[in-house]
Amino acid sequence: MKVTRILLGAIATTSAAEASNKARRQDCPKIHIFGARETTAPPGFGSASTVVNLVQQANDGATSESIVYPAAGGNVYAASVTAGVAAVANQTSTFNQMCPDSKIVMVGYSQGAQIVDDAFCGGPDGFSLNTTRASVSPGVSEMVAAIILMGDPRHVNGLPFNVGNATAGGFAARPARFRCAAFENIIQAYCDAEDPFCAKGNSTATHQGYGREYGQAALRFVQSRLKESGTSSNGTGIVPVNEVAKQVMSSYSWMLVAFCGLALL
């Protein structure tokens, strides 16, 4: 009887804990979009908002959040990038721990593209980052479906995910023959030759115009990667309560079988 009471208590504890976890996950979206703004833009998405909004509107129930970092320029630019890389790693990891089954889409613009690039592809990056390792967690690496970089100062010619006519590197260009092998199939990086930040041009209008010029192309790419990852754009992506209950029952059914066997002893 003592064994029976212990086993019943274990069943109750397990079912309550799993019910809580499942109920929490039922509020998770299928798709969550992170956006990182450009230098000196006010808190929020900045120019990344064009693509963030396009993706969110195309996927029912998708949610979004901005990367919270200084986005500062001048003599504190390097420190701002360091803080931004850490923010990308921390915010994506926090979300992934809460919603481990949700797909992640990243959108970075200018300095925002640089911090996303560094967080997923590693460094070094001047005084901002001294490691070649990615900063994002394994869970995030597994669940990220698409990465959009626009006007990235880390641009270097010859990468398989480059889009645009720029051949010159940005002011924080990657070294020649650099590869971001782990993620190169899910990245699109937009840069045109006239851009003074991701290339060697002199048109700030070009730098600020990627959403207008390439927004729809970026959306098509994101949607294709989401489809390939098995994430549907239809529906809210919220697990019904009765499905949660079904999963909870399944998860501890083995304990009921064990209990029945012990009861016969």
Give the overall average pLDDT.
85
Order of helices and strands: HEHEHEHHEEEHHHH
Radius of gyration: 22 Å
Q: How helical, in percent, are the residues?
A: 40-55%
Shape: globular
Number of helices: 9
Low-confidence stretches are 10-20, 235-264
- What strand order characterises the main sheet? 2-1-3-4-6-5
Structure summary, number of beta strands: 6
**Structural class, from secondary structure content?**
alpha/beta
Distance between the termini: 10 Å
Q: State the major sheet.
A: 6 strands, parallel
Tell me the strand percentage band.
Answer: 5-15%
What does this protein look like?
The chain has nine helices and six strands; from the N terminus they run H-E-H-E-H-E-H-H-E-E-E-H-H-H-H. The termini are close together. The longest helix is centred in the first third of the chain and has 24 residues, at 2-25. Helix 1 runs antiparallel to helix 8. The chain has 265 residues and is an alpha/beta fold. Residues 10-20 and 235-264 have low confidence and may be disordered.
